[in-house]
Design brief:
Layout (H helix, E strand, L loop, with lengths): L2 H21 L1 H7 L4 H28 L5 H21 L4 H17 L1 H13 L6 H22 L7 H19 L4 H5 L7 H7 L1 H22 L1 H7 L4 H13 L1 H14 L2 H21 L3 H8 L2 H19 L5 H30 L2 H25 L6
Helix pairs in contact: 1-7, 1-8, 3-5, 3-18, 4-5, 4-8, 6-18, 7-13, 7-14, 11-15, 11-17, 11-18, 11-19, 13-16, 14-17, 15-16, 15-17, 15-19, 17-18, 18-19
């Protein structure tokens, strides 16, 4: 099997595991008896932990002799494997359950920039790896698992998610083991920049991520508490899976097209287009009068999150200096899965429990509008900024 095919399969299996952890977080924790506020604390706490954990994990690769991206990902996947099984099958106190899920979720989020850097290092070596295609396949696998799990847990115990996670973690580890180590990683170990270096050196990149952060906060609120939105419109867990499938599968064609789009259009222009579709996505979901409109809103995911993620990932590789690229990819995770998700998860849960679902929607509208304004301003100013 070619290296390109193996990397595609890595994403295929990896995003199955991610869906088990974050795609059904509200479903799993509600099954364990947690309230919306407690779920928000767990998901938000995980994201806060990611802000510090992700750069720390990335720095370990350059500090510890013999430690590579592959090895670090292996250690993390094995650790989360056991954590999920403990939470699913052992009678543990609520506070311990919340703590374990926070650690598991944060560790899982910290592996996303590592997965990306594996491809970017190969690209820097001149190896033909299509990150857009691989990431799109990952979205398709996430969508498929959301659809399947949504149906399955309607009939069986929700703890089945931990079993699925264990199976696909093993498959991910098997593929990861077969991938060759990158020579770029080895040669740049002592030269890697930090997140703070990236912020100072690449102003346009930082403000693009800042806008993305706010829009992602709104999208995260809708995603984490989607099960409540679906039920409010008369749906159930099965229809929740359908909504998740429609959302994630829409990313595949867009992410596959990103390399071609970047040859024809400026990166910042493409990101501006993605922000416009983020507005359409989040407002359509919030204003949806029925499940059909809700699903249509979810399908804007490809042209919003899919386009933005694909472009900003390649932007790091083509714009940032080689020694800053790992920190750049980590920065994407910090601003989105870290800060953005923290805002969305924590405030989304509190607003629902204290005021109601409409308060959640108002929060989403404000965050989305603010992010779009920042990116629009960044587009205007980018002509006068080199990076």
């Amino acid at each position: 099997m070619s290296l390109k095919a193996r990397y595609n399969f890595l994403h295929l299996f990896y995003w199955f595991t991610v869906c088990c952890i974050n795609g059904f977080i509200a479903v799993f924790l509600q099954y364990k008896g947690l309230s919306n506020t407690e779920i928000g604390i767990v998901s938000g706490g995980s994201c806060v932990a990611t802000i510090f954990l992700s750069p720390f994990m990335s720095s370990l690769i350059s500090k510890i002799k013999g430690l590579t991206i592959k090895r670090l990902m292996t250690y993390i996947l094995v650790s989360t494997f056991f954590m999920y099984l403990i939470m699913a099958y052992l009678p543990i106190p609520v506070f311990l359950l919340m703590g374990l899920y926070i650690v598991m979720y944060a560790l899982n989020l910290s592996t996303v920039p590592m997965l990306t850097m594996i491809a970017m290092n190969y690209i820097n070596e001149g190896i033909n790896v299509n990150f857009g295609l691989a990431r799109g396949l990952g979205s398709a696998s996430w969508a498929t698992s959301a659809l399947v799990f949504g149906q399955v847990i309607s009939f069986v115990d929700t703890s089945i998610l931990s079993v699925a996670y264990a199976v696909f973690s093993c498959l991910t580890l098997a593929i990861l083991y077969t991938l060759p180590e990158s020579q770029v990683t080895q040669s740049q170990k002592k030269k890697e920049g930090s997140v703070f270096t990236v912020i100072k050196k690449y102003k346009t990149f930082f403000f693009l991520l800042l806008g993305f952060c706010f829009m992602f906060a709104g999208a995260t609120s809708l995603g984490t508490y989607l099960i409540n939105i679906v039920k409010n419109l008369g749906g159930n867990t099965s229809l929740y899976g359908v909504c998740m499938f429609a959302m994630a599968f829409s990313e595949l064609p867009i992410m596959m097209s990103v390399p071609r789009l970047m040859k024809k259009f400026n990166s910042v222009t493409l990101i501006l287009v993605a922000s416009i579709f983020y507005v359409l996505r989040n407002y359509t979901i919030g204003l949806a009068p029925n499940l059909v409109i809700l699903i249509i809103g979810m399908m804007f995911q490809g042209l919003s999150y899919g386009l933005f993620t694909g472009v900003i990932t390649y932007y790091v590789t083509f714009t940032l200096e080689t020694q800053d690229q790992m920190a750049g990819q980590t920065m994407i995770g910090i601003m989105t899965s870290g800060i953005g998700s923290t805002l969305g998860n924590v405030l989304g849960g509190i607003l629902q429990d204290t005021i109601g679902l409409n308060a959640l929607f108002m929060f989403v509208y404000m965050m989305t509008a603010l992010g779009a304004i920042i990116i629009f301003t960044c587009k205007i100013m980018s002509k006068n900024v080199k990076k």
